[in-house]
Structures are given as C-alpha cells and as structure tokens.
Amino acid sequence: IHHVNERLREHYAEFRAVVAELDDFVRRHRQEPGFGLAVDMRPTDPFPVTHSVPFPLVLFAPWIDNHAPSHVVSFPDGRLEICPAADYRRQHGTAGQLFPDLVRIGSDFNIYFWRGRYYGTLHWDDIFRPDLKDHSYVIEGATIQEVLAAQPARYQEFLNDLRTGWCIPPRLGFEIMDRDYRGFQLVRAGAYCYAVPADEGKFQINRFNARRYSRLFVAEELTVIKEQVDAYADRQAEASVR
Questions:
Q1: pLDDT tens series, the chain, 242 aa
Q2: Bridge partners, residue 118, by sequence
Q3: Are the C-beta atoms of 123 and 135 separated by less than 8 Å?
Q4: Which helix (H) or strand (E) holds 25?
Q5: How far apart are CA 17 and CA 59, in angstroms?
Q6: Dihedral angle at the C-alpha atoms of 176, 177, 181, 185, nearest 10 degrees?
Q7: Cβ pair 37, 10 in contact under 8 A
Q8: Which residues pair with 186 in a beta bridge?
Q9: What's the predicted TM-score (pTM) here?
C-alpha cells in the first residue's frame, strides 16, 4: 500500500502543482470586472480526467466562460499557460465561442453546447473537442431534450459495437502487426484485429471508432483479417484489368 501511495503521489505531483498555480491566479484576479476563464484543454494533456470532464470545469466552475472570457488557460507540455483572451483570439483567429460548454453530466453521456447545437458524448470518450478530435457515438440536437431522447438507442449501438470489436476503448492501446499488408495496416487491439488503408495515415483508435477510414475490416484472428484483405485486394485487382 505504501508503494502504491508513493507512486500515486509522484504521478499527481505535477498535476497538484498546476492546480495550485491556477488557483492562486484565480484568487488574485477573481474580483476584477469581467474576469472569466476559457480552458483550452485537449485530449492529449497529461492530466487525470474523470468521466471525460476536464478538471478546471469542476474546480473552477464559477469562473468558466467560453464566450467572453478575460483569459484563456492552456497546458502546453503539461505547463500552465494563461494569456489574455484577446491575444488568444488574435493568435488563433477565433471569434465567438472558444470551447464547448458542459451543460449536463450523465451516467452514459455528457451533454455540451457548441456553437448553437447540443451534443451528447460518451462519458469515456475523452474531453469533448470536436475541433481537434474525431468523436464517436455523438448525438447532435437542437435541444437538450432531443439529445436525451436519442441516448438509449445510441448507447445500445455502442454496446453492440463494443461486444463485436467495432468499438475500441480509447485507452486500450494497440499493436501494429503489419504496416503494409497488400495496402492495409494491420493492428491488434485487445481481442480483435483490424485492417485500415495504409495510405490513410497512422492508425488512430478515435478515428476508427468514428468510422473515418475509407475501408475497415475486423476479425478475432490475424489469419482471418488477412483473408478479408486478400479477398478485397483480389477483387480490386480483377476490376482494374476489366
């Protein structure tokens, strides 16, 4: 137990330091007129995330303002960086809402408001940043109720895909089995093997889950996935000589 506690303490040391530094900034500026924070938190930031909710939205909720903030907070390489919102907008050419608003936390889906629409996202699908990441099983609607009504069917679709290998848990990790087998990249993740076109970039779990490849194959065995690729490649070769 002591060893585990020590590892956790070391793991969270930088996180606690960043939280303390941000808390000090808020304490010194929160009484200023118009003070508010927008948080440019990304799925790749090296901080713990619970239920896919960024920690600043929990710890600093009263000061979050994604529409007219005074400052923008970001975490390049795990470091805290705070700049005036006007400077951030100039640097990034961004007008209007900067980042999605978290409006509801649910057991299966969190709901965000983003540029006039509501979005339901799986609670384990990382921080919701549709401008940076391909999210899967997203529900879009004009109202919160519209998103809520669609949740049962979408969640069942997610569970079915998870059982059959058509959804890969984002933190599962994967192993590249062959970088170019007859034009396909072969990958193993968990109990399944996957094939995606080799010329469409590196394999990405979020991209697979969002069906952002032109061709996808899934099988439990590497020999079977190769047979699927062989059959497809042979068909393409036959069609090209006709």
A1: 454 455 546 657 888 889 999 999 999 999 999 999 999 998 888 887 778 888 889 899 999 999 999 999 999 988 999 999 999 999 999 889 999 999 999 999 999 999 999 999 998 888 899 988 888 999 999 999 999 999 999 999 999 999 999 999 877 889 999 999 999 999 999 999 999 999 999 999 989 999 999 999 999 999 999 999 999 999 999 888 76
A2: 113, 141
A3: no
A4: helix 2-29
A5: 14
A6: -20
A7: no
A8: 178, 195
A9: 0.83
Q: Phi and psi dihedrals of 37, rounded to 5?
A: -120, 135
185 touches 195 (CB < 8 A)? yes
Contacts of 114 (CB under 8 A, 6+ apart): 97, 100, 101, 128, 130
Identity at 66, one-letter amino acid code: N
Cβ neighbours of residue 8 closer than 8 Å, sequence gap 6 or more: none
Residue 93: CB atoms within 10 A of its CB come to: 6
